[in-house]
Amino acid sequence: MLIPNLTLTPEDLKGAIAHHPLIVSPETTVLAAITQLHSNDLRSSAAYLSDPAASCILVAHEQQPLGFLTEHDVVRLCAQGVSLDQPIQKVMATPLLTLQEAEFKDPVAILGVLNQHQMDHLALVGDRGQITGLITRTSLHECLHFIELHRAEQANAQKLRLELSILKAILDIILAGYWNWDIPSDCAYLSPGFKHMFGYADHELPNATESWQTLIFPEDLVEVMACFDRHTQSHGNIPFYNEVRYRHKNGSTVWVVCSGQVVAWDDAGKPLQMIGCHINITRRKQAEEQLQKSDAHLKTAQRIAKLGSWEFDLATERIHWSDEVFQIFGRDPTAGMPSFEELQQLYHPDDQAYHNQTVQQGIKTGQPYDLECRAHRPDGSLIYIQARGEPIFDATGQLRQLVGTVLDITDRKAAEAKILQTTAQLKASNRELEAFAYSVSHDLRSPLRAIDGFSKALLEDYGDQFDAEGKDYFDRIRRNVQRMGHLIEDLLRLSRISRSEMQYSTLDLGALVLEQIKELRATDPDRQIEVVVASQAIVSADPTLMRVVISNLLQNAWKFTSHQATARIEFGILENQAQPDEPHIYFVSDNGAGFDMAYANMLFGVFQRLHNTTEFPGTGIGLATVQRAIHRHGGQVWAEGVVEQGATIYFTLLPINRVQTSGQESTP
């Protein structure tokens, strides 16, 4: 094969040249020349063995080529009966093609010259014209063929080096290292990537089997060697594959996939050579561990919450339940997943149609659904469940699956029933108690009026017959009767607050405060007292109840500051700026007698007092009335105080926007 555009080195051209051809003088006889040509030294030369046509005789005078004679020429002369004892110059062939040695660069061009002159030989001559070698047509072809093979080998070697570099890069990318184990000698090659996987540089870890055996966990080494035995005993049919742990240079654990294959066996079937790779799967193992923990936490959370999850494949109509769904329905997991028809039978007969209709509607519309149903367990017990479903669509928008949850709400339903029962009983008790309080309070007024009236008549008609002590007794009777009257009035007022219908309207609490202060100043004009009132305290509330709240709070503040030389009462607002929709906090504070916080829980009880009536008169119902009114608005009330440093009563009311959206009375 000819190689065009060939650039060769002198080393490449050596194979085409016979550097020591037979050269004789013109006077040498043909027989003598043939005898020299067939001598042992010449016949064993590389040029002769590779190209028999090179066995020709060059004729030269003082190293100047004159002609040549080949073996074929000798055979022809013998056949013609020509004497071989005559000088060779008489029978030699001429002319002889020559080429300057320095110009021999392109074998293809030389072949063209030989073909042009129909010659098989060409003599190389030096710079002084001396013959330095011989080139033949065959040697040129052999040279070109050798060069072609050599270049192909070089190309294959370059390709192999490139593929190895790519493979090494791939192994580095996938965090892998490879190894080669000569089993009879127990010698191993460990790639740099293998060593780097465990934190070592190439020179830090010897290429020996002991290197990896000291890094692997001892218990995993046992399994690796057992796997190797199975692999070799099956003559490679059982794969050599392990997921094992190694100790990193920094002490951490490295998980790897260790896989390999015996690639050479001896005649007895014993392994000779094995190759393989290690792939770092630490991140995968960590992810698996985290997934297992998450799955365990999910199962625990589902068990605690009695919440299970499910999937329903629309194409196959197969249902998949989590473990907790089996627990909720009391179904044995070994019985397998139920069909949709079996699931329907688990529900209460009165709820089966509702469940099926809801699910089918969710499939038809592709919308989520939420339903509550009753179901029977295999033991006959009745449970309540809340089932929720969500549609799952594929990339084309087709509904493929329903997923959802099942929540056991049996305990909640029982609690709701208990609450409803307790609430009904409580409402009935409250109505009876309020009716009783109203009736008692109303019925007590007549005898009290009689006692007060007759006591007054006795004093007026027979007062001169009583001494001072007797008159004092009658005064005490009348004072206590009057106090009893006030208590009854307060009880009736408290009863009315609990029973009256709520009528919401927009109020300015600041205006109510100023109105009450004006009334208090009129009853006690000599009091010197500083009053601070916040503006724009706009609320939506029942006007009657809020007047009762403001009246009781300010009367208490006015009363408990009566012993202060410089009294101060403030009405203010603590708005929740971070949560504007949350209830606003209002307060009435004073610098009066205050109270001990240890008894704060007693302040809002009926007839509960922290001060002596001789010091601060009252019935002990005012703050209880305030609490009842605030609770009916859905608010809260509490108090803070320090003895002889004053008290602050706080209460909350919903913002106007929330009252307008709800529009309902709250139950305390």
Please tag this protein with its features:
668 residues, alpha+beta, five-stranded antiparallel β-sheet, 20 helices, 23 strands, rod-shaped, disordered N terminus, disordered C terminus
Q: Going across the major beta sheet, what is the strand order?
A: 8-7-11-10-9
Low-confidence stretches: 1-5, 44-50, 660-668
What is the mean predicted local confidence, pLDDT? Answer: 82
Shape: rod-shaped
Number of helices: 20
Structural class: alpha+beta
Which percent range fits the helix content? 40-55%
Question: Helices, strands, pairings?
Answer:
Layout: H1 10-13, E1 22-24, H2 30-37, H3 40-43, H4 46-50, E2 56-61, E3 64-70, H5 71-79, E4 98-100, H6 107-117, E5 121-125, E6 131-136, H7 137-173, E7 176-182, E8 187-190, H8 192-197, H9 209-215, H10 218-233, E9 240-247, E10 253-265, E11 271-280, H11 282-305, E12 307-313, E13 318-321, H12 323-329, H13 340-346, H14 349-365, E14 369-376, E15 382-393, E16 399-408, H15 410-462, H16 468-499, E17 505-508, H17 509-523, E18 529-533, E19 538-541, H18 543-560, E20 567-574, E21 584-590, H19 622-632, E22 637-642, E23 646-653, H20 656-662
Parallel strand pairs: 1-2, 4-5, 18-20
Antiparallel strand pairs: 2-3, 5-6, 7-8, 7-11, 9-10, 10-11, 12-13, 12-16, 14-15, 15-16, 17-19, 20-21, 21-23, 22-23
Structure commentary:
- The protein contains 20 helices and 23 strands.
- The protein has 668 residues and is α+β, with helices and mostly antiparallel strands.
- The strands form six sheets. The chain has a five-stranded antiparallel sheet with strand order 8-7-11-10-9, with helices on both faces. Strands 13-12-16-15-14 form a five-stranded antiparallel sheet, sandwiched between helices. Strands 18-20-21-23-22 form a five-stranded mixed sheet.
- A hairpin with a 4-residue loop joins β7 (176-182) and β8 (187-190).
- The longest helix is centred in the middle third of the chain and has 53 residues, at 410-462.
- It is rod-shaped and about 200 Å long.
